[in-house]
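Technical appendix A lists one of the benchmark inputs used to test multi-chain prediction within the project. The record comprises three sequence entries:
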Amino acid sequence: MLIRKIYDTLYETYGEQNWWPHDTVLEVAIGAILTQNTAWRNVEKAINNLKREGLLDGKKLLSVSDDKLKELIRPAGFYNQKAERLRSFLKYLYKKGGCLKKINDDTKKIRNELLQIKGIGKETADSILLYAMDRPVFVVDAYTRRVLRRHNIIKEKADYETIQSLFEQNLPKDVSLYKEYHALLVKLGKEHCRSRNPQCGTCPLKILFMTD
DNA sequence: TTCCGGCGCC
DNA sequence: GGCGCTGGAA
C-alpha cells in the first residue's frame, strides 16, 4: 500500500536518520518545544547552552531566573514564549513525579494533559510522546502535510488527526517505524519537497507516482 | 490571520 | 535583503 511504499522508498534512498540525538529524554522534550517553527541548528545551540550551564535538569532549569533562561535559549528564537512554555512543561512534569520515564498513564491521557499546557500543541505533544516517551504516535508536521498534498493523497484542508490516522491505520504500531518515517519525511521536505522551488525532477518518490 | 524572533542560506 | 525553519496562541 502507498503509505508503506513511500516509507520503503525513502528509507532506501536516505537510510537511517538517527533521530533524535540526546543524552537524556528530558533533553528530547525540551528540544521539541524549542524547535517550534525553528531550524534544528539553532535549537542545538540553545540546548548546548543549557548543557554547558548544567541546566539540563528539570529542577535546576525551573530555578534559574527568567532572564537567564531567555538568554540561554535565545538562539532558538521566540525566546519569550519558549521560556514560558518550558516552565509550563516542567511544572507539569513535576506534578507527574518529575520523570518522563516513570509516567505510566495511557498515551491518550498523557496526550490530553500535554495539550492542556499552554504552548504545547498537537505536533509538539506527539513529538514528546514519540521521541521522548516511546509511545506509538505518528507526528504530523508541515513537511508531512506538504508531501501528501503535492501527491494529492490528502485534501487541502485535511486536519491533523485525519492525516495522523492515515499513517497509523496503514502501518504497524511500531515506535521505531514512526520515528524513522517522520524523520525521513523531514529529510524529503528539506531536500526535495521544499515549499519554494521544489526538486520534483530528482524526487525519490517520483517513481511511485508516474502514471504512464 | 497575525504575531512571536534569531539564525543561516539564496 | 528576503525567506523558511522538525508551531502555537489569540
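Residues 111 and 125 of chain A are 6 Å apart (CA to CA). Residues 2-17+138-209 of chain A form a domain with the Endonuclease Iii, domain 2 fold (CATH 1.10.1670.10). Comparable benchmark entries are summarised in Table A2.
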